[in-house]
C-alpha cells in the first residue's frame, strides 16, 4: 500500500487536526503500513527501529477508533521503561487532544495511589510498564474488561529486561476479541512465539530503513587511556562545540564523575541514571528536551526510544559492551533524517567491544585522532562564548496544539460532589459557549481542571469570576499549559 497523505486515511476531523498541528506532513513508511491495518482492526507485527514514527503509527488509529463515551480503558500500551511510557503517553495525549481523549501512564517508583486515583476516572488509554500494570491488575485498580486494543512496544527490549513472563500474564488478562500490535527492532524466537501464541493471523511488516542511522551519522573513534578520557572529553567539547550533546557512560559512577567535572568547568549540564529518583529523572529529561542546558551525561537508561530533537553530538565516554546499545546510543543524534556525529572513546581493554560493534553494523568506525593543540586554541573563543550563553529554548512538541486552549483550575472537586455535568452545564450557559468549546475535564478530590477551546478561555475565565458553579462562587484560576504538560 502506498498512501501519500494523511487525508487518504479518511480520519475524523479532531485526529486530522492534531496531525496537522504536530506538523506531520506525510505518513512515514511504518505509518503507511500500520494505520490502515489497525483501522481495519487486524493484528500486526512490525519490525522497525525507534525514530521511524511508530508511536504515531499506532497512536493515530487508536485515537480514531476509541469511543469517547466509554469510561473504562479501551487501549493498553506496554512499554519497557518508565521514560518511554511517559513519552508514549504524551504522544497519545497530543494525538487525541481534540477528541478529548484521556491517557494515563502507570509505571514503577511512582506513588501507586495517585495512579489508582487517575484510573478511577474516565480513562481511554493506559500506557504502562509491565511490572506496574500487573500490580494494578492484581489490586483490581485497572479494569481491562473493555480493552479492545493492545500494543506491545519495543518487545525485544522487554525480553532483554526479563519482562517476558509478565507479558504473558498481562496479555492473558486482556479480552480475546482485541486487536494486538507488536513492535520490535529485532525478532528473537521468544518474541515470535509470543506472536504465535497470542495474535490472530497478524500482518507482518518489516520496515527497512533506507538511510539507516549508522549510515546517516558521522562516526569516529579515538584511542584514549581510561584515565585520559576526561581530558579528551574537554578537548572534544571545545572543538565540536555542540548545541546539544549526550555523553554516554557504562556505569552510574562514571556518569557522576563526568558530570562533576563538567559542572566544575561551568558547562550547562545534568545527568540521568537508574540510581536516581524517578522524579529527578523526569525533571532532567524534560529540562533537556526543553533545551535548558546543552550536555546530558547518561547511562543507557536514556538511550532507548527517547525522543529529543536536534542532538548534534553523541559521545560514548565508554564503549558499550552490547553492540545493539551502540546503535541505540548514536541514534539519539541524526533523528528524522538529520545528520549528526558520534564520537567513541576507546581504551585499550575496550578494543574487543569495538570489534563486536564493527561486526554488528557491518562496517568499521573510522579512527580519528585527538584534536591538535592549534585546533583547540582556535576553537576556544567560540566555545567560551557559547558556554556562557543561555541555550535557545526548544518549543515542546505539543506547543502548537495548545494554541487557542486555556486550562482553568476550579477549587472544587469530588469532595464537594462536583461532577462533569455541573461543569458542562455552567459553561454551556455562558453566552457564546457550546459543548464543542469544552476540552478535557479532570475532577480530582478538591480541584477540577477544565480546558476551554477555540480562544474562548479568557472570556470564560472572566465570566467565572462572577458566576457561581453548582450554586456557589468558586475560585477559578488559569493554569500554565506548557509547564503543566512537562510534569
Ligand atoms: P517514534 O519512532 O515514534 O519515536 O517517532 C520519532 C519522531 O518522529 C517523533 O518526534 C515524532 O513526533 C515524529 N514523527 C512521527 N510521525 C511523523 C510524520 N509523519 N512526519 C514527521 N514527523 C513525524
Give the topology, please:
Elements: H1 13-21, H2 29-39, E1 44-47, H3 54-65, E2 75-78, H4 82-95, E3 103-106, H5 112-120, E4 125-128, H6 130-139, E5 149-152, H7 155-160, H8 164-173, E6 179-184, H9 189-198, E7 203-206, H10 213-216, E8 217-223, H11 229-240, E9 245-248, H12 252-264, E10 269-272, H13 278-289, E11 295-298, E12 313-316, H14 323-330, E13 340-346, H15 351-361, E14 366-367, H16 373-387, E15 406-410, H17 420-428, E16 438-443, E17 448-452, H18 457-464, E18 476-479, H19 481-486
Parallel strand pairs: 1-6, 1-7, 2-4, 2-5, 3-4, 5-6, 8-13, 8-14, 9-11, 9-12, 10-11, 12-13
Antiparallel strand pairs: 15-17, 15-18, 16-17
Helix pairs in contact: 2-3, 3-4, 6-8, 11-16, 14-15
The structure holds adenosine monophosphate.
Provide an overview of this structure:
This protein folds into three domains: 6-206, Rossmann fold, CATH 3.40.50; 213-387, P-loop containing nucleotide triphosphate hydrolases (Rossmann fold, 3-Layer(aba) Sandwich), CATH 3.40.50; 404-486, RRM (RNA recognition motif) domain (Alpha-Beta Plaits). It has helices at 13-21, 29-39, 54-65, 82-95, 112-120, 130-139, 155-160, 164-173, 189-198, 213-216, 229-240, 252-264, 278-289, 323-330, 351-361, 373-387, 420-428, 457-464, 481-486, and strands at 44-47, 75-78, 103-106, 125-128, 149-152, 179-184, 203-206, 217-223, 245-248, 269-272, 295-298, 313-316, 340-346, 366-367, 406-410, 438-443, 448-452, 476-479. α13 (278-289) links the parallel β10 and β11. The strands form three sheets. Strands 3-4-2-5-6-1-7 form a seven-stranded parallel beta sheet, with helices on both faces. The longest helix is centred in the last third of the chain and has 15 residues, at 373-387. 39% of the residues lie in helices and 17% in strands. By secondary structure, the chain is an alpha/beta fold. The model has no long low-confidence stretch (mean pLDDT 90). Adenosine monophosphate binds next to α3.
Amino acid at each position: 500500500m502506498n498512501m501519500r497523505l494523511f487525508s487518504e486515511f479518511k480520519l475524523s476531523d479532531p485526529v486530522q487536526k492534531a496531525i496537522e498541528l504536530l506538523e506531520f506532513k506525510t505518513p512515514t513508511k511504518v505509518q503507511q503500513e500500520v494505520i490502515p491495518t489497525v483501522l481495519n482492526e487486524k493484528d500486526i507485527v512490525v519490525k522497525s527501529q525507534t525514530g521511524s514514527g511508530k508511536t504515531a503509527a499506532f497512536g493515530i488509529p487508536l485515537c480514531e477508533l476509541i469511543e469517547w463515551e466509554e469510561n473504562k480503558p479501551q487501549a493498553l500500551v506496554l512499554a519497557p521503561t518508565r521514560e518511554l511510557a511517559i513519552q508514549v503517553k504524551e504522544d497519545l495525549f497530543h494525538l487525541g487532544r481534540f477528541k478529548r481523549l484521556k491517557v494515563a501512564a502507570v509505571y514503577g517508583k511512582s506513588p501507586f495511589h495517585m495512579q489508582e486515583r487517575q484510573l478511577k476516572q474516565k480513562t481511554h488509554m493506559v500506557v504502562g510498564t509491565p511490572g506496574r500494570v500487573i500490580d494494578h491488575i492484581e489490586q483490581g485498580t485497572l479494569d481491562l474488561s473493555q480493552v479492545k486494543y493492545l500494543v506491545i512496544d519495543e518487545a525485544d527490549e522487554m525480553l532483554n529486561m526479563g519482562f517476558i513472563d509478565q507479558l504473558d500474564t498481562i496479555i492473558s488478562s486482556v479480552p480475546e476479541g482485541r486487536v494486538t500490535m507488536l513492535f520490535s527492532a529485532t525478532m528473537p524466537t521468544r518474541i515470535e512465539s509470543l506472536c504465535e501464541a497470542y495474535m490472530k493471523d497478524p500482518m507482518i511488516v518489516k520496515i527497512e530503513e533506507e538511510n539507516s542511522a549508522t549510515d546517516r551519522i558521522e562516526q569516529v573513534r579515538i584511542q584514549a587511556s581510561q584515565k585520559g578520557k576526561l581530558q579528551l572529553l574537554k578537548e572534544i567539547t571545545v572543538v565540536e562545540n555542540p548545541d546539544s550533546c549526550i555523553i554516554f557512560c557504562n556505569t552510574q559512577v562514571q556518569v557522576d564523575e563526568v558530570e562533576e567535572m563538567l559542572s566544575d568547568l561551568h558547562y550547562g549540564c545534568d545527568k540521568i541514571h537508574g540510581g536516581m529518583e524517578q522524579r529527578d529523572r523526569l525533571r532532567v529529561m524534560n529540562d533537556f528536551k526543553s533545551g535548558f542546558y546543552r550536555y546530558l551525561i547518561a547511562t543507557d537508561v536514556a538511550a532507548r526510544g527517547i525522543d529529543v530533537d536536534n542532538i548534534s553530538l553523541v559521545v560514548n565516554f565508554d564503549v558499550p559492551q552490547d553492540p545493539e546499545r551502540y546503535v541505540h546510543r548514536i541514534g539519539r543524534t541524526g533523528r528524522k533524517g538529520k545528520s549528526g556525529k558520534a564520537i567513541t572513546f576507546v581504551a585499550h581493554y575496550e578494543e574487543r567491544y569495538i570489534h563486536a560493534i564493527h561486526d554488528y553494523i557491518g562496517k568499521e568506525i573510522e579512527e580519528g585522532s585527538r584534536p591538535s593543540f592549534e585546533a583547540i586554541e582556535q576553537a576556544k573563543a567560540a566555545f567560551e562564548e557559547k558556554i556562557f550563553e543561555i541555550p535557545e529554548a526548544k518549543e515542546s512538541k505539543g506547543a502548537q496544539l495548545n494554541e487557542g486552549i486555556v486550562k482553568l483550575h476550579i477549587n472544587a472537586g469530588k469532595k464537594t460532589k462536583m461532577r462533569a455535568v455541573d461543569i458542562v452545564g455552567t459553561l454551556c450557559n455562558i453566552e457564546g459557549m457550546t459543548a464543542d468549546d469544552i476540552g478535557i475535564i479532570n475532577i480530582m478530590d478538591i480541584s477540577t481542571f477544565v480546558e476551554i477551546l477555540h480562544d474562548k478561555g479568557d472570556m470564560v475565565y472572566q465570566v467565572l469570576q462572577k458566576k457561581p458553579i453548582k450554586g456557589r462562587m468558586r475560585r477559578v484560576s488559569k493554569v500554565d499549559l506548557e509547564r503543566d504538560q512537562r510534569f
